[in-house]
Design brief:
single chain, 204 residues, alpha/beta, five-stranded parallel sheet, three-stranded antiparallel sheet
Length: 204
């Protein structure tokens, strides 16, 4: 089963991606992870990507597509995969359609105002990465490991609103594209985590 997971920053993609990958025994492919892996290993395409990143430029679609295509050729993708963070643009979606067949596109749909509140209230453990929200946990130490809890620099209101606006502008064409192919499935991402996962399983 080949799945794409769409959702704005803070919509809960990371949590649901882990669960989907475990249930269906497929790799969770995050473009951020494969970028870092290729750069670390010094692959040709990784070096290409790094040359843009080092200049503070966006990595061009053709380089992103090449990195993803190479990853999808690996043995663990034979039974399917879950793509998270790709495609981000219509050009990437069209390029992907020439590489592989997609079975379902899951869109975690959530009100952007709720997302802004969720993200600006998010706190992270500096040591283990555990995530908390000030509405349910206000301690300064992590429950899991005792590490310091802090707010990420990009979780301030101005940056969050900017990220959400960029996401909305990028994603609208993708939603229309996959809707036209009858692949898009909208899930209410504002529900309880378990209910969101239950809805995803029912669709898949």
């Amino acid at each position: 089963m080949n799945i794409i997971l769409l959702g704005a920053p803070g919509a809960g993609k990371g949590t649901q991606a882990v669960r989907i990958a475990e249930k269906y025994k497929i790799p969770h492919i995050s473009t951020g992870d494969i970028f870092r892996k290729n750069i670390k290993e010094g692959t040709l395409v990784g070096l290409k990507a790094k040359s843009y990143i080092d200049k503070g430029q966006l990595v061009p679609d053709e380089v992103v597509v090449e990195i993803v295509e190479n990853r999808l050729k690996e043995a663990d993708c034979k039974a399917g995969y879950l793509l998270d963070g790709f495609p981000r643009t219509l050009a990437q979606a069209e390029a992907l359609s020439k590489i592989t067949k997609i079975d379902a596109v899951i869109n975690l749909d959530i009100d952007l105002k709720k997302l802004a509140d969720r993200l600006t209230g998010r706190r992270i453990c500096r040591d283990c990465g555990e995530s908390y929200h000030i509405s349910t946990y206000s301690d300064k130490a992590c429950k899991k490991c005792g590490g310091e809890i802090y707010q990420r620099d990009d979780d301030n209101i101005a940056t969050v609103n900017s990220r959400l606006q960029v996401y909305e502008n990028q994603t609208k064409p993708l939603i229309e594209y996959y809707s036209s192919k009858n692949l898009l499935k909208n899930i209410d991402g504002g529900q309880d985590i378990d209910k969101v996962f239950e809805d995803i399983v029912n669709i898949l």
